[in-house]
Structures are given as structure tokens and as C-alpha cells.
Design a protein that fits this description.
With 756 residues, the protein is an alpha/beta fold. The chain has 3 domains: 361 residues, Rossmann fold; 201 residues, Rossmann fold (3-Layer(aba) Sandwich), CATH 3.40.50; 127 residues, Rossmann fold (3-Layer(aba) Sandwich), CATH 3.40.50. 38% of the residues lie in helices and 13% in strands. It contains 25 helices and 22 strands. The strands form 5 sheets. It has a 7-stranded mixed beta sheet with strand order 11-10-12-13-15-14-20, sandwiched between helices. The chain has a 6-stranded parallel beta sheet with strand order 2-1-3-4-8-7, with helices on both faces. A 5-stranded mixed beta sheet has the order 17-19-18-21-22, with helices on both faces. The structure holds thiamine diphosphate and magnesium ion. The site of magnesium ion has 6 residues, from strand 5.
Length: 756
């Protein structure tokens, strides 16, 4: 039962919103120094901004050919520079703790340079030795820091050059840098792509009591993307008190490529106003100058405190400007005037902040010039070294796609989960059978009891037990911190699952119908699937996405598709489609223990099917097919609910005509047990694949391609695909029955194939 009753309440009144501060933190350096900011730190802020500026100016010089780090060098790849925006990067990263998390954007060089830089600045000798991967070194801390900064800049530049020594071994490049050791969860080249990932990391922080804050760096353009709404709403859900410890930081450089926020593509003057839409605290939103490193630092410092007190989320907008084009191919003359550019150049942080440092006697003008020269030289040296670094070996192209570890070693802290009531097994019938639905619940219960990092969420999965009652009872056993209802936000459900999986939780998220996965296409295909590989194979993503296929219930086009080919299209995802109650339990348990993302497909019609399921512990490895029925005349390959019709058809043909058909159920589609299929075809010399989806682009087509590659010589006739028609699933029973391959049609098709 819910904790509050929503009674009718219609009293007249007006909604009032509390104020959103504008440019309140225009605080002079002298005041910040008197409040305790150290002089060394104040100078570090300039140094960090200079590292970013000079790094990017070096890219411009390399691109134009005025500086070449090695003979014949050519800069390849994206050039989204943040020149002009350095105060946001330095001010933000300096206000976070070294182990706080960030997510970043396509314009993220500054974020990654500063995140690691401030972590290095905070390190003692041991930490620095660790970063340098050294055990002993007699040099002073200052010398080690100097070397560590050089290594960091080198790894960053090497990644831009696509080198093995880069942060992501050249798999990501400049738009996809991550460094998990420093809490950098990854830059994202999909505008808005990291909103939900950051929110999921904050969920981990909250549920695992990590006390970490997540800074989600986004551009002004990203705020108009749907995932922004889904994520901010998710983070502000009151079922977890105030909400999640995440700071959404809008780096408003006035343009989303060329679309201008103010007056053109957004009806707001200040994007912080969006904060009013998510909770009564306006998400503690504020707008500050992004050209003033001290304003940024103060705002992020305060936001972190809010989050650490458990009062997040926070929304910050920093007004800033990019001096160059969207990328270096954008000459920017078609959409903005020199007067505008000049006005922003006048408040350049690298012009104004050094003046403050000089006025306060922290440095002299010549110190500033020396620093600029030193930093430039450093970056040039780094570029020379990076240009000479190693090109990744093409024979290793597949390295880092999947992790081969599982959660075998849970660790003491998470080994015993708290339960609110005793856990019972489902009662078996006289043959030892239980329902498929109950096998799902049993698998989830056992895994949640085994490992307290396993959490379950999705639409209506809590008290109600999910649309198909496949999570019923789990909320009562494990409580809201382990089992909770998500808003109707498929993209956020999957994206937060990813962020949470990367940061310590092992989420199982539910998408009610597979049809709705298209709402989360980016999160599934661009984020979940790519995170491990694109960021250099370092991440572990123990995420299970459970969903269901319908079909045959008269629900028509948007609730009846069999979209298993969609997740299978993205390298980096495993895809499972179990048929029996025995399989669903064993495979789901394995999926939860995987350190890889698994797309797990249940079938609504199978929930009510029974099978023998032992009460004793067992798992089934992913990637192992099974022969469900033996025969010598034909191999029939199918999975999920279609298998039921296939098996019925085989029985009819055996009984009536003595035809022996072997049925192979791959159970896991990715990785596919092609060996199991080939072994059978070598025996029968004929094959037919049956799927519930329309044939074009179906997973059945992929199976056939694999058969042609591996078993062509064993075939006496072409492999046949039996599939739905090339139409959206229709509603009328006469049409739907015709559309989904059923027993009669399979019998007909087999007869036809064997008559060849
Ligand atoms: C989903 C998506 N749509 C479009 C693009 C192409 N694109 C790349 S960056 C960009 C502008 C983003 O603007 P903003 O969020 O303000 O970031 P900025 O580039 O200003 O840093 C666009 C349209 C993309 N990468 N992703
Ligand atoms: Mg922008």
C-alpha cells in the first residue's frame, strides 16, 4: 500500500515559486581568500585553466599545420573546443572531491583535464606513486606531481590521437574520454546522453551510502532533449527523501551548434528556471557567470554540500561562450557577429582572473607570462610524445568488448542482504513443476538475497508486482531501497541502470513491453552497449534489462512486436530469450552474476507455462544452446514462445508421417551457440528457422547467415525462414493468427521443405 492517500483537493489558490538566484556569487578573490581559500589553490585555478586553453590551442595549431608534433603528422578526429569556457571546467572540478563522479560531453577536454588534475593536486606521495604505477621513488612530492601531470596530459593527448597509451586505448578518442580511477565516468558525444548515467551513479551513491556527489556536465542544447526531463524527474523522486546527490551543470555557451538558446530554440532567458519543474525546492537552481572561475567554484562547492547533506539534486547554469566554432570546420560567420564575440572576449577568464591574482599579490604579471609559456611548452612536449605512441594492434580489435568476470566474489559487506520477511520457495506441483513467472521471481529472490547490490526497478514493479506479476512479493521482502517503482521513463530506467552498474550496484531493470525499448534506443544502443569498449574496456556493467514480448493477445502494433533483433544489433550486449521455467531461472541467475549488460527477454505467454524447477541452487551459462527434441530429417531452430508451436508441429508430423525433427533452442541469442546448431544440421542436412518477428532484418536472418557460413556443405536444400508478415502486428484475431507462425503453418512449411 502507498504511504500517502491522494484525496481530492480543489481549494482555490495560486502556485508560488521561490526565487532562483542570478549571478549572486560575483565574489572578489580577496573575500574568498579571507574565507579560507589558500593562495596555492587560487593559483592552481589559473594553472588548470591554462592547461585546458593551451591544450586546445595546440589542437588548433596541429589542425592548421602551424605546429607538427612529428614528421608528416595529421590530426584526425573531432575538434570540439571549449576555448572560452575554461572557468567552468576548472571551477567545477576543483570544488569536487577527488573520488566524486563526473560525466562529460563532446566538448569535454577541459572537464577531463581538470578532473584528474585536481585529483593529482590532492594526492600525497603514495597516491602519486600509484598514479605513476611505481612502488618506490626518491624524488620529492613536487617532482612526482610534475611527472603525474605530464602523464595525465600525455594520456589525454594520446587518446585524441587514437593511441594505445591513451586513456581509452584509442577506442574512444577526444569525444569519449573516461578515467574511472578519477571518477570520470565518460564523455558523451550524444547530446544529453549522459544525463541518466550521472543520475544512476548518484543512485549508487545514495543506496550504497558512498557519500559521493555526481557532476553531470551538459551543454545548453542538451537541456531540450527528452532524457533531460526523464533524468531530472528521476533524481528528484521523493520516494528517496529529497532525491539523488547529483548536480546538473548546464554549461550555457549560448549555442547548440548554431541554434541559439535565447530567443530562438528555447523560450527561457535563464535555463536554471527548468529547476522549478522537478521539485518544490526548484532543485536549488541558480545561474552564475561561467566566465568567473570563483563564481563557478563557489556554486559547485555549495551544491556539493547540499548533495552531501542528502538534499540534492541541484541544477546550476553557468553562462559562458565558446570563442571558436562548434568544431573547427565551423567558421561561425553565418550566425554570430564580431561585436558579440568581442564582448565575451572582454570577460575572458584567462584575461580577468590573472588580474585578480596580481592585484591580490599572489603572482606577478611576469609569473603569469612564465606560467603560460611553461604550460604551452609542456603541452607541445606531450603532443610530440603522443604522436610517437603506439597505434592499436588491429588484431586486438575485439579486446574489451565483454568482461569475462562474474560476481562470484561478493565481498563481506554485500553478502548478507536484509530481508523484511522470510523467503520461501514456490510450492512445486506433484511433478515438481512451477510456473515460468514463479521461476523468474525465485531467480530474482535468490540473487537479491545472495548479493545486496542487486536492486530491481521499473514501472509498477513494487507493490503491484509488475504488469505480469513477475516481481510480485519482492517489494515486501526487500523493501523500497531494493525494489522500487520508476517513473514511466524508459530511457532513464536504462540509462540510470547503466550509471548505477558502473558505480557499484548490480541493477535489474524492467521494461514492461519490448516495444517500449524504442523509447530508450540511445541509452541501450549508444550508451549501455558501448560503455565498456568505447572507454577502453575498463568498465564493468553488471546490468540486466528484463523485458517481455507479447503477441497473440489482440494488443496490435505497439504491444506485440518481437524486437529481439534490435538489441542483438549492438555489439556489447548479450541477449537471452529463455523458453522453459527451468531455463528462465538458471539463465536469469547467470545474467545477474554477469559483469556485462544482458538484455533478457521473457514471453508473456510463457509466464503461465510450467516446468520442473529444482529447489536446489543451479545456474545455466549464457551462450549454451540445447537440443529440445532429437530427430534425423530436419533441424528446426527457434526460441522463446515460438518453440511451443514448433514442438507441437514436430509431434504432429512424427505421429502422422513418422518424420523425425530435431529442435534446437539457442536460449541465448548473443552469444549464439552456433556449434550446437551446426552439429544438428550435420546430422539432418536440412534446416528451418522460425521466428515471431517479420523476416526482414530478423534474428532468424542472422541465424541463417551463420548456417551458410558454417554448415553450407552439409545442406541438401536452402535454409527456410518462417516468420511473421512484413506488417505491423494487426489487432483482429483472424489477422493476428495468420501473422504469427503457428502450429499449422509450421507443419505446412516443414512438409513443403521436405518435399524438395
Ligand atoms: C542526440 C544528438 N543530436 C545531435 C547531435 C549533433 N550535435 C553535436 S553537438 C551539438 C550541439 C550541442 O549543443 P550543446 O548541448 O549546447 O553543447 P555545445 O556544443 O554548445 O557544447 C549537436 C547538435 C548529437 N551529437 N547528438
Ligand atoms: Mg551550447
Amino acid at each position: 500500500m502507498k504511504e500517502i492517500n491522494v484525496l481530492p483537493a480543489f481549494s482555490k489558490g495560486k502556485m508560488a515559486f521561490s526565487d532562483i538566484p542570478l549571478f549572486e556569487y560575483d565574489i572578489p578573490l580577496s573575500k574568498r581568500l579571507s574565507e579560507g581559500m589558500s593562495k596555492e589553490f587560487a593559483v592552481r585555478l589559473l594553472e588548470a585553466m591554462l592547461y585546458v586553453r593551451k591544450f586546445e590551442e595546440t589542437i588548433i595549431r596541429m589542425k592548421s599545420g602551424s605546429f607538427s608534433p612529428s614528421e608528416g603528422f595529421k590530426f584526425v578526429g573531432a575538434t570540439h573546443l571549449s576555448v572560452g569556457q575554461e572557468a567552468v571546467a576548472a571551477g567545477t572540478m576543483s570544488a569536487l572531491r577527488p573520488d566524486d563522479y563526473i560525466t562529460s560531453t563532446h566538448r569535454g577536454h577541459g572537464h577531463s583535464i581538470c578532473k584528474v588534475l585536481f585529483r593529482l593536486y590532492s594526492m600525497d606521495k603514495r597516491g602519486l606513486l600509484g598514479f605513476l604505477e611505481k612502488k618506490e621513488d626518491d624524488r620529492s612530492e613536487e617532482e612526482l606531481l610534475n611527472e603525474a601531470v605530464g602523464l595525465h596530459l600525455f594520456k589525454t593527448m594520446a587518446e585524441l590521437f587514437g593511441k594505445e597509451e591513451g586513456y581509452c586505448h584509442g577506442r574512444g578518442g577526444g569525444m569519449h574520454i573516461a578515467d574511472y580511477h578519477s571518477g570520470h565516468l565518460g564523455a558523451n558525444a550524444i547530446v544529453g546522453g549522459s544525463f541518466a548515467i550521472a543520475t544512476g551513479a548518484a543512485l549508487s551513491s545514495l543506496l550504497l551510502s558512498q557519500k559521493k556527489v555526481v557532476a553531470c556536465m551538459v551543454g545548453d542544447g542538451a537541456v531540450n532533449n527528452g532524457i533531460c526531463l526523464e533524468s531530472m524527474n528521476f533524481a528528484a523522486m521523493p520516494q528517496f527523501g529529497s532525491g539523488f546527490p547529483v548536480i546538473y551543470i548546464i554549461e550555457n555557451n549560448q549555442y547548440g551548434m548554431t541554434g541559439q538558446q535565447q530567443g530562438e530554440v528555447t523560450g527561457l532567458t535563464h535555463l536554471s528556471r527548468r529547476g522549478t519543474g522537478y521539485n518544490e525546492q526548484n532543485m536549488h537552481a541558480r545561474t552564475e557567470s561561467g566566465m568567473n572561475v570563483l563564481s563557478v567554484h563557489k556554486a559547485v562547492e555549495e551544491a556539493s554540500e547540499i548533495c552531501r547533506k542528502g538534499e540534492g539534486p541541484v541544477l546550476l547554469e553557468f553562462k559562458t561562450y565558446r570563442y571558436y566554432g562548434h568544431s573547427l570546420s565551423d567558421k561561425r560567420v553565418s550566425y554570430r557577429v564580431p561585436e558579440e564575440e568581442k564582448a565575451w572576449l572582454d570577460c575572458d577568464p584567462i584575461l580577468t582572473y590573472p588580474k585578480e591574482l596580481v592585484e591580490n599579490g599572489l603572482v606577478s604579471e611576469s609569473d603569469v607570462e612564465d606560467m603560460k609559456e611553461r604550460v604551452t611548452k609542456r603541452i607541445e612536449e606531450v603532443a610530440v610524445r603522443a604522436a610517437k605512441a603506439t597505434d592499436p594492434d588491429p588484431s586486438h580489435i575485439q579486446d574489451g568488448l565483454f568482461s569475462d568476470t562474474t560476481s562470484d566474489d561478493i565481498g563481506k559487506r554485500y553478502r548478507t542482504a536484509h530481508v523484511n520477511k522470510p523467503v520461501k520457495k514456490f510450492k512445486r506441483d506433484s511433478q515438481g513443476k512451477i510456473l515460468y513467472r514463479h521461476a523468474v521471481i525465485e531467480a530474482l529472490t535468490e540473487e537479491m538475497e545472495r548479493d545486496s547490490r542487486v536492486v530491481l526497478y521499473g514501472e509498477d514493479v513494487a507493490e503491484y508486482g509488475g504488469a505480469f506479476q513477475a516481481t510480485l512479493g519482492l517489494y515486501d521482502i526487500f523493501g523500497r531501497r531494493r525494489v522500487f517503482n520508476a517513473p514511466i521513463s524508459e530511457a532513464a530506467i536504462i540509462g540510470t541502470g547503466l550509471g548505477a552498474a558502473m558505480t557499484g550496484l548490480r541493477p535489474v531493470v524492467e521494461i514492461m513491453y519490448i516495444d517500449f525499448i524504442l523509447m530508450a534506443g540511445d541509452q541501450l544502443g549508444n550508451q549501455v552497449a558501448k560503455t565498456k569498449y568505447m572507454f577502453g574496456g575498463k568498465a564493468k556493467v553488471p546490468l540486466v534489462i528484463r523485458t517481455t514480448i507479447g503477441g497473440g493477445k489482440g494488443y496490435a502494433g505497439q504491444h506485440s512486436q518481437s524486437l529481439e533483433a534490435f538489441p542483438a544489433q549492438f555489439p556489447g550486449l548479450k541477449v537471452v530469450a529463455p523458453y522453459s521455467a527451468y531455463d528462465v531461472k538458471g539463465l536469469l541467475k547467470s545474467a545477474i552474476r554477469e559483469d556485462n549488460p544482458v538484455f533478457f527477454i521473457e514471453h508473456q505467454h510463457l509466464y503461465v507455462e510450467k516446468d520442473v524447477v529444482p529447489e536446489t541452487e543451479y545456474t545455466i551459462p549464457l551462450g549454451e544452446g540445447i537440443v529440445r527434441r532429437e530427430g534425423k530429417d530436419l533441424t528446426l531452430i527457434s526460441y522463446s514462445h515460438e518453440l511451443k508451436y514448433c514442438l507441437e508441429a514436430c509431434d504432429i508430423l512424427e505421429k502422422e508421417e513418422g518424420i523425425g525433427i530435431e529442435v534446437v533452442d539457442p536460449r541465448t541469442l548473443v552469444p549464439l551457440d552456433i556449434d550446437c546448431i551446426v552439429r544438428s544440421i550435420e546430422k539432418t542436412n536440412r534446416a528451418m528457422v522460425v521466428v515471431q518477428a517479420p523476416g526482414r532484418g530478423s534474428f532468424g536472418e542472422h541465424i541463417i547467415r551463420m548456417i551458410q557460413e558454417r554448415a553450407f556443405k552439409s545442406l541438401k536444400s536452402p535454409v527456410k525462414l518462417v516468420s511473421a508478415y512484413e506488417v505491423p502486428p494487426p489487432m483482429a484475431q483472424s489477422l493476428e493468427k495468420e501473422n504469427i507462425p503457428g502450429t499449422e503453418r509450421i507443419v505446412r512449411e516443414i512438409r513443403e521443405l521436405l518435399s524438395d
